[in-house]
Predict the 3D structure of the following.
Amino acid sequence: MIHIPDHIRVLKPYKSGNQVGKQISREAFKQLVNLASNENPLGASPLAIEAIKNSVEEISVYPNPSAPDLVNAIAKHFNKPPECIITGSGSDSIIADVFKAFTVEGQDIVMADATFIGAFVNANKLNRNIVKVPLKKDYSYDLKAMLKAIGRSTRIVYLANPNNPTGVMATKSEFEEFMKEVPSDVLVVLDEAYYAYSGEYDDCPNGLDYECNNLIVLRTMSKSYGLAGIRVGFAFGPKELIDYMYRVKLPFEPNILAQKAAVAALDDSEFIVKTIDTNKRNLTKLKVFFSKVGIKHTDGKANFTMIELKDGDTANKFAAESLEQGFVVRPLGMFGLPNCIRINSGTDEQTDRAIKVFENVIAKLK
Ligand SMILES: Cc1ncc(COP(=O)(O)O)c(C=O)c1O
């Protein structure tokens, strides 16, 4: 009999936002509007698509393990030294590399009790001990409590900013206060998956502005660049730490087409501007609508908001009724918030239609 390690036996397979997509055919899913995965409703950067088409012939060769073209393009774009950058198959993969490089089994990783599921999944599969810190009542981070949770066995504090699934952001001054108090031998992983959106706010901290020996900043091309399906993420950090991450990284990530697509997408400023504008308009519409109908919601600073309903039953009904009418939204039971739903902004047309549908759904819930 094959021995299954205890920590693997109890793992539950990862469930993405798109649960509906797994239950119905691809054609049927295409008829629905997915507001459950925080993807870019405008699709992928056209320059990235072009780059993939032009590179298809190259798929017979291994990519360069240090992805120099992509790393150099990121370095140039963000004005950072290339030796302080590492890339991977999505920031999910990079989170795994950080945990592998800087912790061993049983050591503590501190994170909020409701945050990006990938951080929990990676910690659990590596048998790291997760120290969960409750969010405040308004769903913001309790940074003081997170500091208090740091113990002798803590090696990492994971902070997604803005947080997923709440969309709530720690401000620049809150983050700076927090960083001042974190012991210098504890690594802070600042996951800025939604920075293209949140960076529009003056009080949003930009992880790249800080030169700290214990800070690693994560970014992804899955959201604003529209490349979720091809899997590219990257991290910035002190050279010494990035070097260790290269030792644990799977050598050929990201794949060759992903690297080409990412280089092209970085330069697609027209697409990014359009993406940010579309999100600004449509996220505002969603927030204004939920305020108008008296549904409590977060002031999401990414490309989604989180609404709070009476209880878990009502939240499930909201999701089921919305689906009936063609819109997929994300119930948050898995995040420990059973009465909440996460909804990302769509195109102008999708969001206008979604609001009409939600109006109907809310009337039925009463
Ligand atoms: C905060 C946060 N970090 C990381 C990710 C994962 O991004 P990627 O597609 O690069 O793995 C997500 C995806 O939803 C996210 O919300």
User: Anything to note?
Assistant: The chain has a mean pLDDT of 95. The chain has two domains: 6-44+270-365, 46-267. The two ends are 55 Å apart (CA to CA). DSSP finds 15 helices and twelve strands in the chain.
